[in-house]
Design brief:
Number of strands: 17
CATH topology of the largest domain: Rossmann fold
CATH superfamily of the largest domain: P-loop containing nucleotide triphosphate hydrolases
Bound molecules: adenosine-5'-triphosphate, magnesium ion
Structural class: alpha/beta
Largest sheet: 10 strands, mixed
Number of domains: 3
Number of helices: 14
Radius of gyration: 30 Å
CATH class of the largest domain: Alpha Beta
Strand content: 15-25%
Helix content: 25-40%
Shape: elongated
CATH architecture of the largest domain: 3-Layer(aba) Sandwich
Amino acid sequence: MRELGVIASNARSFEAPLVVFKDAEAFVKEEALVVVEDVKFKRRYLGVLRLVTKLDPLLTTSQRSAIIEKPEIASEGLDIPYEISYVRIIGEISSGEVKPPTTPPTPRSKVYIVESPSDIKLDLGGGLVIGIHKYSGIEIPMKPDALRYHIAVVGTTGTGKSRLVKALVDEVLEKTNWSVVIFDHTGMDYTPFWTSSVVRADEIVLDVDTIAEGLRNTLGYAERAVEEYVPLALVKYIVCKTNQQLCSQLERSQLALTRKQLEHLTLDLSSKKMWNTSELIKVIAETATKLGARGTTSQKLSLYISLFAEQYVKRLNNMSKTVDELVERARRERVLVVDLSYIETETRRVIAKRFLERLWEIIAERLEPVNTLVVIDEAHNYACQQGCWPSNTLIEKTLREGRKWNLGVVLASQRVLDFTPDVRNNVNTVFFSRLQTPYDFDQLRNFVDLAGVRPESLSLLETREFFFAGLGNPLKYPMLIKVREVAEPTRRACQ
Ligand SMILES: Nc1ncnc2c1ncn2[C@@H]1O[C@H](COP(=O)(O)OP(=O)(O)OP(=O)(O)O)[C@@H](O)[C@H]1O
Ligand SMILES: [Mg+2]
């Protein structure tokens, strides 16, 4: 290992100043991994460099210098400046393991830079390898147990969050027996990587309230008429189009339907492609009139639906899969990508909620761990404080209670700030990169121990560079990693 310098006075067990040797200055970098050899007490410490500083005792800002009159003398003293830095101590190395530091390194102990994994033998346990330490190249595996304690990946757009999650999912599939359900918000981040494991969200059967809500959003017609009459009209449409016996029971108000039965009938209707705008309008108008709506209300509803909702109604014919069967498929085939890009954001939240709800139903039925990781990308749309209902409720429940049943969540987002406090408090491993605003940094600081990482160091990070912090990190200390290469998805021949 290359010598960098020696520990100076005022060394503490968590941080020690370093005076850099003149010919080693070029190798001193923020976040470089170093080893401190304390020969006096036969101890070795592992640390990272922080606050690299160049000093010139003859050129301070508080004392007048002759240079201001004679600029030419500046270059005469080029050998005078020297460099210092701080070693942020991660721990003491003992038989390859890194233990919490108990005593400070002795001043004058030599400091060496770790430039390659062969420089040092460290036992970091096995685990999921998402990346390597940026300067030493050492793999820092994530403990698999961290999956059930939930993970957040945050950084501004383009930092490489979705690729990091892809690397994580690959490792989960290869090295654990967990299944993974991925919600692909854009349909471009995960769908191209697992083309044979994708389900389009418009193929998933929706409940009547969600269909009615979607219709209301499509119409942009906020009158209560849609809320009041459409759900009932939808039940009637679904039942009467598919089952005459149930239809007559419904008309006599003698029908008690379960959610499952209605889902089954909805599927039947869609499989026969019987969603038809003009027929649906007829049923809605009849229902509204029967329930005492004014004539103009029925007319308005009919007109708006025929004008604006034809595509929406037609698309309901695509519904052919239940969430229950998709969850089973994910558990059987181990990975399922839900391409949410085909449907409106409000409906995406309902689908995410339904998947989590189903997983909790399975837990309640079988009372055994489900070993499932749920990936929610662009998570500020699903786990925010305001406007994320109903997905936020189930995400919060999962974050609070999922660990017991091996139900973990990965949230990737540009904004920490939007997460509800319950979400933030229950995420235990965090990958963070460049952030959108300084305020995001303050929020991050509230829920993860940054151990002296400063906002300025984040702003210098490049694509694929993340700090890896929290429970999953075997060093229990934020480390700068470069995420492993996740190549572009191979395009299919027809594209
Ligand atoms: N690990 C990686 N391997 C190879 N290329 C990467 C990697 N990470 C990022 N990139 C490159 O950077 C681009 C952006 O990465 P990615 O889509 O993961 O960013 P993001 O943080 O999810 O952005 P957004 O917030 O817009 O979703 C990728 O298209 C790819 O070209
Ligand atoms: Mg992304």
